[in-house]
Design goal:
ATP binding; 4-stranded mixed beta sheet; about 30% helix; about 375 residues; 60s Ribosomal Protein L30, Chain: A; 7-stranded mixed beta sheet; ligase; alpha+beta; PurM-like_C_sf; about 25% strand; purine biosynthesis; Phosphoribosyl-aminoimidazole Synthetase, Chain A, domain 2; globular; 11 helices
């Protein structure tokens, strides 16, 4: 066996431990800003510690957990070399799944895999995650940055995260609370959010458009529009759920699968939400994707949020109070439909969805045309 002429070290294999340490130093202040009195210890421990004593005040606390990533939207961030907004996409995808059941997201951890640790880039990503956690009222208690040379390119990375929340058992939201006659309220998205970017990127590449292109309909460059951070609804939804006059029975986070599929997941079998498209106008970016790619409407609706990022299902007599509460918090919202008896569709019906993502639940019918 022939020994190499020079020593092989971890650094020569492509892993820079010192760069990782520098990244931690750059992000410490942002992470610490998310901590409250329940977080124990500082940044850099083997495990994040959270004081669960507050759960003693619950009669029957239920823990809720969720994990997710950002998908191929990271490719846009990497192409534009802008990394401090992608954290909102990550946090939104995770904590807004938790609040759907009425749970408060208590703490979160993140994971970043990259081809090469560039301290400033990693710190920018984590600063974005921390800023979004502050908006959500969630503590960022730990994370991991892994350098994978040879597996990922020097400028490539992916992010993922997980969060844990709690809800009192008798405050749990879900299909069992939804009733015939309930009203469906849509909350505006900030843009495409973090789902459907494989379709969007394919359309853009096919059209030959560059991210630097100024688009008059958008009022900015294409890249700036596509990198618009996901709206984080957690604090707004929790406030609405705790506001008794709002009469909240359920929420639906509109992510992969689109509005109808995700709304159907939180409806009980035997009931159907009828959603009127004419109650809102498609934001320009969605019209652009549809036109550039000649994307069929059913495919758009199964892939993108089309301007609706979160849905609340409320008692009919409480709809006005719910809308006023959301408006006071700066969340654009409107009545988009009602809940009634489920129908039996005949044949293939692109406007009708029953059950989704393994949930044998209720149904959703989209009617009318977008305003």
């Amino acid at each position: 066996m022939n020994a190499p002429d020079t020593s092989i070290t971890y650094a020569s294999a492509g892993v820079d431990v010192e760069a990782g340490d520098r990244a931690v130093e750059l992000m410490k202040a942002a992470v610490k800003a998310t901590h409250n009195s329940s977080v124990l210890g500082g940044v850099g421990g083997f495990a994040g510690l959270y004081d669960a004593s507050r759960l003693l005040s619950y009669r029957k606390p239920l823990l809720a957990t969720s994990t997710d990533g950002v998908g191929t939207k990271v490719a846009i961030a990497q192409a534009m070399d802008i990394h401090d907004t992608i954290g909102f996409d990550l946090v939104g995808m995770v904590v807004d799944d938790i609040v759907v059941v009425g749970a408060e997201p208590l703490f979160m951890t993140d994971y970043i895999a990259c081809g090469k640790v560039v301290p400033e880039r990693i710190a920018a990503i984590v600063r974005g995650i921390a800023a979004a956690c502050e908006v959500a009222g969630t503590a960022l208690v730990g994370g991991e940055t892994a350098e994978h040379p040879g597996l990922l390119g020097e400028h490539e990375y992916d992010v993922a995260g997980a969060a844990t929340g709690v809800v009192e058992a008798d405050r749990l939201l879900g299909p069992e609370r939804v009733r015939r006659g309930d009203v469906v309220i849509g909350m505006a998205s900030s843009g495409i959010h973090s789902n459907g970017y494989s379709l969007v990127r394919r359309v853009i590449n096919h059209a030959g458009w560059q991210l630097e292109r100024q688009v008059s309909e958008l009022g900015r460059t294409l890249g700036e529009e596509l990198l618009e951070p996901t709206r984080v609804y957690a604090a707004d939804c929790l406030d609405l759920a705790r506001y008794e006059p709002a009469g909240v029975h359920g929420f639906s986070h509109v992510t992969g699968g689109g509005l109808a599929a995700n709304l159907a997941r939180v409806l009980p079998k035997g009931l159907q939400a009828t959603v009127d498209r004419s109650t809102w106008e498609l934001p320009p970016v969605f019209k652009l994707v549809a036109e550039l790619g000649n994307v069929p409407q059913p495919d758009l609706e199964r892939t993108l949020n089309l301007g609706v990022g979160m849905v609340a299902i409320v008692d009919a007599g409480s709809a006005d109070a719910a809308l006023e509460r959301l408006a006071a918090r700066g969340v654009p919202a409107w009545v988009m439909g009602t809940v009634g008896e489920a129908e039996t569709p005949s044949g293939s019906d692109a406007d009708f969805v029953q059950g989704a993502k393994g949930v044998d639940g209720g149904a959703v019918r989209l009617v009318g045309n977008y305003a």
